[in-house]
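Q: Two folds, back to back.
A: First:
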Amino acid sequence: MRTSPTLGVLRILTSSLAHPSTRPISRAQIPLPSLFRKMSTPAPPPAQTTPGTTLLRQPVTLACVQLPSTASKSTNLSHAASAVSSAVKSTKAKIVVLPECFNSPYGTDHFPSYAEPLPSDPANPSPELNPSFLALQKIARENEVYLIGGSIPELVVSESDPSSKKYYNTSLIFGPGGKLLATHRKVHLFDIDIPDKIKFTESDILSPGNKLTVIDLPEYGKIAVAICYDIRFPELAIIAARKGCFALIYPGAFNLTTGPLHWKLLGQARAVDNQLYVALCSPARDITEGVYHAYGHSLIVDPMAQVLAEAGEGEQVVSALLDGSKIEEARKGIPLRDQRRFDVYPDVSEGKVSYEE
């Protein structure tokens, strides 16, 4: 009669107990039956098991301010100031988001002429050199809000060679006191070519950023900020979620081809994949001939991928109350955080991640 592998294991262990003087059994002496499997899944990162109520420490209203951009930078800046003030009064928002390239027309032909440097001393911006920085700082301070300042074309001049210039698509994030908390340079440049629909090549003028941007808002928790085309790359969102963010915020300017196809879909996808809030803030649509036609439809999505608020095409403010209990409710009901298989695939948040330019 053939002895089963399991019975063989038991006989070896029983023999050891009956004869304590016997030499200790090495692991190699114990045959492992095929029904046993070595488990090597590492413990999940702390952010995956942190209750949602601690990710978002208290409920907060977030507002997306959907604005048109004109050819006048000063007009765009003053319009943004009045629109944010009105939005804060009507919604009581404490986190406010502006659109991508809110201070200028969107287009490679426009980036160089509208670009401005960031101040070497953020506490002392120059009205002549840094008008957009100064305007955003003032908007945040006067309205006492966390301001995700959409994005602006940023100019960087080489110190060693003043004729060498680089341009970035950059978001500036300010605190309620007007302090600059972080900057995010668009990591993935919008280079696409859909035959008979649209061709756009940001890399003709812009350089890419080189970091993921996570900001801690002391009263609320962590948010991640990225720009437009960045949303198509789920790695940024996955890492931000694993690092404990309660919201992903994307100023973006999708067009009339990609907007109807993917704008809402991508917002919902990033939300459902990561079980957190997602906000997308677009410019209002301008149908003037020869300008970039933004899709509009700024929206806010909850951790179960339900759209809480969505704008139309024109100038509009949409807002929603973000509640940490909704994050935990989603993660408890569909417990992805406890079911990931890092023995099968890697945890991208534990790889080489850049948080500095």
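A: Second:
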Amino acid sequence: MDADKPPSQAFRRTLQDLSHRMLSTLTSFLLSALVFNVVRGTVIVPQAPPSDHIFHTSSDVPTGRNATIAGVNTYINTPPEGAFDPTRAVVILMDIFGFGSTDNFTDTWAKAGFATYMPDYFLGDPFPQDGSIANDAWHLNHTEAITTPPLLAVLDALRVQGIQQIGVSGYCFGGLYATRLTQNNTVAVATMAHPSSLAIPDDYILVKANSTVPVQINSGEFDTGFTPALAEQTDELMVGYAPGYNHMAWAGVGHGFAVSANASDPVAVAAKEGSFEVMSSWISAHFV
């Protein structure tokens, strides 16, 4: 075709046909990907709304201290010198409400004999208890790309300080990070309660394929996020996981039960205390 002449009508029709075929192919590809995901049955565990949480602040006076580690504000509590192994530590991966919003279970971990650290990977911007910010809007500013670097910076700094084994305990939002650290073999042992934002079964397919980290999960009967059905699916997937897997299902409680409990509810108190015993025992048993 002469470059100085306008394209013929036949040529334009050829381009249009080619464009339509390419668009059709792309559309078919995208639809196939969508169908593939539906067939696989992948579920993203939703973040529970504030209304699903119990906000009960303990009357106990905090016994730890705040310090800056790798530029990250971190709550620290350690048992008396000589009463713990300084080469081991537990890192608490907090829920979206951050410091001071619930019972101070970091101190509880320290009382059980662990050097305990709770880094503020929200960098001073937790989700408001009153829900005054839309959940989606808050999460846009607290994606994994934003919240992971400060967490990893603290873990690296602890290792530089001489801590050789790190166990993590993730709650709600923190359960995703406990899972990520498990997938990447970044920690020695992991435990979590009522995790959110996981992709089930994908995330635990990856754990089973790649990880050498013992992992333990606690779930609640009435959790609307990590539901009993999703917990059961995860259990079935993790059968035969050599490093070690445990799941405890707690009756009569919903999301957030391991973080805070209404003192007048014996079922909730028993689940909170019982899950802590399971989690702390799991970490103790799997520290080498």
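Q: And?
A: Residues 18-39 have pLDDT under 50 and may be disordered.
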